[in-house]
Design goal:
The complex is a heterodimer of chains A (277) and B (509).
Chain A lengths: L1 H25 L2 H51 L23 H8 L18 H12 L21 H8 L7 H4 L4 H16 L22 H4 L51
Chain B lengths: L2 H25 L3 H9 L2 H8 L5 H17 L1 H9 L2 H9 L4 H15 L3 H9 L2 H8 L5 H15 L3 H9 L2 H9 L4 H15 L3 H9 L2 H8 L5 H15 L3 H9 L5 H5 L5 H15 L3 H9 L2 H11 L6 H13 L1 H9 L2 H11 L3 H15 L3 H9 L3 H9 L5 H15 L5 H10 L2 H14 L4 H9 L2 H7 L7 H10 L4 H7 L3 H10 L7
Helix pairs in contact in B: 1-4, 3-4, 4-5, 4-7, 6-7, 6-9, 7-10, 9-10, 10-13, 12-13, 13-16, 15-16, 16-19, 19-22, 21-22, 22-23, 22-25, 24-25, 25-28, 27-28, 29-30, 30-33
Classes of the chains: A mainly alpha (277), B mainly alpha (509).
C-alpha cells in the first residue's frame, strides 16, 4: 500500500536529480556562456595581434622601399655629378629663371663623384715600424704627464741607478733582421712607388702610339675558356702531373726560406764577458 | 699535310659542334622555335653529341635536350624512345657537377608530363643515381635532383613508393636544413608531392623527422618557401587523426595564424588549407583551433581575399561548425555568418558559392538559436534564389537545397520565413508552413503580425491535397484564428459577399 507513496516520492526525487545532472554535467548553460565569452575575447586578442603584425610588416616594407629609392637616387646623383652648376654656367637643375634651385641640384652638391674604375683591392698596408713602435710604447709603457724631478736623491739601499733602471724599462723594441728588413721589401717599395705615381696621374689609360690607333679589334677568346661550363684546369692552372703515391712526405718544397738570426743578436747580448759592446 | 693542318681540321669540327649545340640550346628557350627544331630532326642529332669527347659539348647537349623535352610530351617521349635515358643515367654517376645538373634537368623535363614517362625513368634505374646526387656537396646538383624526384613522385602512389624505396626521404629532410633557400623550397615541394598520396607515405615522411624542421621554417620570411612548407604540412595532416595530431604537437599554433596575414595570396591559401585539414578530423582538434583564436583569423583572411583563395577558409568554417553546436556557436560569435553570406552573394564561381551554402547549412542546422543567427543576415532569400536559378550548377543547387531545408527545420524567426511563403517551390513551402504551424499556436504577437502582413491570406491561397502534410499544417494554422478571419481571407470571399448582396432583398416599408 505504501508502495504507491514511495514510488511517487521516488519520482519526485529522480526528477530533481535528473534536472540537476543535466544542468551541471551534460549542458551547463553558464559554463557555455563563459566559454563563448572567452572565445570571443581570444578572437579579439588574436585579431589585434595579427593587425599589429601586418602593420609592422607593412612599415618594414615601406622603410625598405624608401631606403632602396634613396640609394638609387643617390647613385644617380653620383653618376650625373657633372650636371652640377659651376660659377660661370648654371646647371640644368639650377635655372636662372627660378627662385630656388631644383632639389636635384642640392643632391648633386652633396653627392661624391663616382669614379669609373672602382678599385676594389683594399691593399693591406704593412704598418711601418716607427708608427707601430710609437703606438705600442704609448700604450704598454705609460708615462706620467709630469717628468720625474731632475735631482732625485738616490734611495738608500742596494738599489740600482735610477737612470739605468729607466733605460732598461723603456728600452725600445729591437726587431730581428727578418722583421726589420723583410724579404719582400723591394716588392713593397715598388708597390708604394707605383701607388704614388698613380695618385699623380691624370688619366689611367695607357698612352698608345699613333701607329696602333687602327688596331681596335677586340680579342676573341677561345670558346674553351669562355664557355660557362668551365675548361679543364689541367694545362692552365696546374701543369705538372702529380703522383701522390710517390711522395715521401706531404710537405711541398719551400720557396722562401726563413732567415737565421745570428746577425741580429750581434752586440746585443747581456753578457759583458765578450766586451764587444 | 703537316700536323698542324691535320689538327686544324679537328679543331674546326669541334668549333662547329660547339657552336651548333650552343645555338640549339639557345633556340630551345623560345617555344616558337621548337616545332621547327623537331621537324628538322634535332633529337637524332643531339643524341650522339651526348657521348662527345669534349665535356662542354656534352653538357650543352644535355641542356638542349632538357629544354626540348620540357616543352611538350611528344618530345619527351622521343627522348625516351631514343634510348637516351640509360646513357644519361650512366654518365650521371661519373661526370662533373654541370653535367649532373643538366642530366637531372633532362630527367625532370621527361618525368613531369605523364605517369608512363615517369615510369620509364624509374625503369631505367635513374632513381638510385638521383638519390646519390642528393648527397653531392654542390647545392645546385641537390636542387636539380630533388626537383626531378619531386616531379616523378607527383603522379601517383606507386611512383611515390618507388622514390621512397630508393631512400630519398631522409636525404630530402637533410636538404631542407641546408642554408640555400632555393634548395629548401624544392626539397619541401618534393616532400609534399611524396606525402600527398597515402597515409603510409606521409608516415614515412614523418618518421624521417621532417615535421620539426618544417614547423621551424614557417617563420622564414621568404614567401615561396612558406607556401611549400604549409603545403607539406597540410598534405601530411590530411590523411588521419594521428598525423594531424602530430602536426599540431609541433606547436604550429598560433604561429600559423600569422601566415594568414601574409601578403602572398598562396601563402594564405595554403595556411587555411592546413587549418582546414586539421579541423576536419575530430571535434577536439576543432576545439583546439577555436581556443587558439583560429576561427577569427580565418574569417579575417576570407574577408581580405577573393576567388579560389577563399575556398579552404570557407570549408574550414563548415567543418568546424559541423562537429557540434558549441563550435557552431563559437563560429557565430566570431562574426562568421555575415562574412559567409558576403561570400555567397559576391563570388562569381559556383563551387565557392556551393561551399559557402554548405558551410551556412552546417552552422544553422543545430538549434533555433543558430538558425536565427543565420536567418537574421538575410541569407535565406539568397540561398533560395540560387536553388531556383537555372544557371546554377547541379552541385550548387543540391547544396543550397540541403542548407535551406536544414536551416528551415530549426528556424523560428518568423520575419525571415515570411518571404518564403511567396516565392518558394512546393517542397520547401511545406517546411515553411510547418514551422509557422509550430510557432503560431504559442505566440499571440506573432499571430497578429502574421495577419497584418498578409501571411494568412497567402496561406489560404495555397492549394494543398487533402490529407497531405501541407494540408495538416494549414489546418493547424487556421485553428489558431477565429473562423470569421479565416473566412474573410479565404479566396473568393469577395465573390460570395457580392452574391449575398445580389440576392439580398432590402426591407421595403
Amino acid at each position: 500500500m505504501k508502495m504507491n507513496l514511495y514510488n511517487a516520492m521516488a519520482v519526485r526525487i529522480q526528477r530533481r536529480w535528473r534536472g540537476y545532472r543535466i544542468r551541471k554535467y551534460c549542458f551547463n548553460y553558464f559554463y557555455l556562456k563563459e566559454y563563448l565569452k572567452a572565445v570571443s575575447e581570444t578572437n579579439d586578442a588574436i585579431r589585434e595581434a595579427l593587425e599589429e603584425f601586418a602593420e609592422m610588416k607593412e612599415r618594414e616594407e615601406k622603410k625598405a622601399d624608401l631606403e632602396r629609392e634613396e640609394k638609387k637616387r643617390d647613385y644617380q646623383a653620383r653618376k650625373t655629378h657633372y650636371l652640377l652648376s659651376t660659377k660661370q654656367i648654371p646647371g640644368i637643375y639650377n635655372s636662372p629663371f627660378r627662385k630656388d634651385p631644383d632639389p636635384w641640384e642640392l643632391r648633386l652638391q652633396k653627392a661624391k663623384p663616382l669614379t669609373y674604375q672602382r678599385s676594389k683591392v683594399k691593399q693591406k698596408r704593412c704598418i711601418s715600424l716607427s708608427s707601430w713602435l710609437a703606438c705600442t710604447s704609448a700604450r704598454s709603457f705609460p708615462r706620467s704627464e709630469i717628468l720625474p724631478p731632475i735631482d732625485r736623491k738616490q734611495c738608500q739601499g742596494p738599489f740600482r741607478d735610477i737612470t739605468e733602471v729607466l733605460e732598461q724599462r723603456y728600452k725600445p723594441l729591437e726587431p730581428t733582421l727578418w722583421v726589420a728588413e723583410p724579404i719582400s721589401e723591394l716588392k713593397v717599395a715598388r708597390e708604394e712607388f707605383r701607388r704614388q705615381e698613380w695618385m699623380r696621374d691624370v688619366n689611367d689609360n695607357m698612352f698608345l702610339p699613333f701607329s696602333s690607333y687602327h688596331k681596335n679589334k677586340k680579342y676573341t677568346p677561345l670558346m674553351h675558356s669562355s664557355s660557362k661550363y668551365g675548361p679543364n684546369s689541367y694545362g692552365s692552372q696546374h701543369f705538372r702531373d702529380e703522383n701522390p703515391k710517390k711522395w715521401i712526405c706531404d710537405k711541398d718544397f719551400q720557396t722562401v726560406l726563413p732567415s737565421f738570426d745570428l746577425f741580429s743578436k750581434y752586440g746585443k747580448l747581456y753578457s759583458k764577458a765578450g766586451q764587444i759592446i | 699535310m703537316s700536323q698542324r693542318q691535320v689538327l686544324q681540321v679537328f679543331e674546326q669540327y669541334q668549333k662547329a659542334r660547339t657552336q651548333f649545340v650552343q645555338m640549339v640550346a639557345e633556340l630551345a628557350t623560345r617555344p616558337q622555335n621548337i616545332e621547327t627544331l623537331q621537324n628538322a630532326g634535332v633529337m637524332s642529332l643531339l643524341r650522339p653529341l651526348l657521348l662527345d669527347v669534349v665535356p662542354t659539348i656534352q653538357q650543352t647537349a644535355a641542356l638542349a635536350l632538357g629544354r626540348l623535352a620540357n616543352y611538350n610530351d611528344d618530345l619527351a617521349e622521343a627522348v625516351v624512345k631514343g634510348d637516351i635515358l640509360p646513357q644519361l643515367v650512366y654518365s650521371l654517376a661519373e661526370q662533373n657537377r654541370f653535367y649532373k645538373k643538366a642530366a637531372a634537368f633532362v630527367l625532370r623535363a621527361v618525368g613531369k608530363h605523364s605517369p608512363q614517362l615517369a615510369q620509364a625513368i624509374v625503369d631505367c634505374g635513374a632513381l638510385d643515381t638521383l638519390v646519390i646526387c642528393l648527397e653531392d656537396f654542390d647545392p645546385g646538383v641537390k636542387e636539380a635532383a630533388a626537383w626531378a624526384l619531386g616531379y616523378i613522385a607527383r603522379h601517383n602512389a606507386e611512383l611515390s613508393q618507388a622514390v621512397v624505396d630508393a631512400g630519398a626521404v631522409p636525404l630530402l629532410v637533410l636538404c631542407i636544413q641546408e642554408p640555400e633557400i632555393a634548395l629548401k623550397r624544392i626539397a619541401a615541394s618534393a616532400l609534399s608531392d611524396i606525402s600527398k598520396h597515402s597515409p603510409e607515405l606521409a608516415q614515412t615522411v614523418v618518421d624521417a623527422g621532417a615535421i620539426a624542421h618544417l614547423a621551424q621554417m614557417i617563420l622564414n620570411p621568404d614567401s615561396k618557401l612558406k607556401r611549400q612548407v604549409l603545403s607539406v604540412l597540410s598534405q601530411i595532416a590530411k590523411h588521419s587523426v594521428d598525423l594531424a595530431e602530430m602536426v599540431v604537437e609541433a606547436e604550429i599554433f598560433p604561429v600559423v595564424l600569422t601566415c594568414l596575414k601574409d601578403k602572398d595570396e598562396y601563402v594564405k591559401k595554403n595556411a587555411s588549407t592546413l587549418i582546414r585539414e586539421i579541423a576536419k578530423h575530430t571535434p577536439e582538434l576543432s576545439q583546439l583551433i577555436v581556443n587558439a583564436g583560429g576561427v577569427a583569423a580565418v574569417i579575417d583572411c576570407i574577408g581580405s581575399c577573393k576567388g579560389n583563395i577563399r575556398l579552404p577558409g570557407i570549408m574550414m568554417l563548415g567543418y568546424v561548425a559541423a562537429h557540434s553546436e558549441n563550435l557552431a556557436m563559437a563560429v557565430i560569435i566570431s562574426k562568421g555568418v555575415p562574412q559567409l553570406s558576403v561570400c555567397l552573394s559576391e563570388e562569381p564561381e559556383d563551387h565557392i558559392k556551393a561551399a559557402a551554402a554548405w558551410a551556412l547549412g552546417q552552422i544553422g542546422r543545430h538549434t533555433p538559436e543558430h538558425a536565427r543567427a543565420v536567418a537574421v543576415t538575410n541569407t535565406l532569400p539568397v540561398l533560395l534564389s540560387l536553388y531556383m536559378s537555372t544557371e546554377s550548377s547541379e552541385d550548387l543547387q543540391v547544396k543550397s537545397k540541403k542548407a535551406i531545408k536544414s536551416i528551415l527545420q530549426k528556424c523560428t524567426y518568423l520575419p525571415a520565413l515570411e518571404p518564403f511563403l511567396y516565392d518558394a517551390p512546393p517542397n520547401i513551402l511545406k517546411h515553411v508552413v510547418g514551422q509557422f504551424s509550430k510557432v503560431l499556436p504559442h505566440d499571440s504577437k506573432a499571430r497578429r503580425l502574421f495577419v497584418t502582413s498578409g501571411g494568412l491570406k497567402k496561406v489560404q491561397e495555397i492549394k494543398a491535397e487533402p490529407g497531405s502534410l501541407l494540408q495538416e499544417y494549414i489546418n493547424s494554422i487556421n485553428n489558431c484564428y477565429p473562423e470569421e478571419i479565416v473566412r474573410y481571407y479565404s479566396p473568393g470571399y469577395s465573390d460570395t459577399l457580392l452574391q449575398r448582396v445580389d440576392s439580398y432583398q432590402p426591407l421595403t416599408h
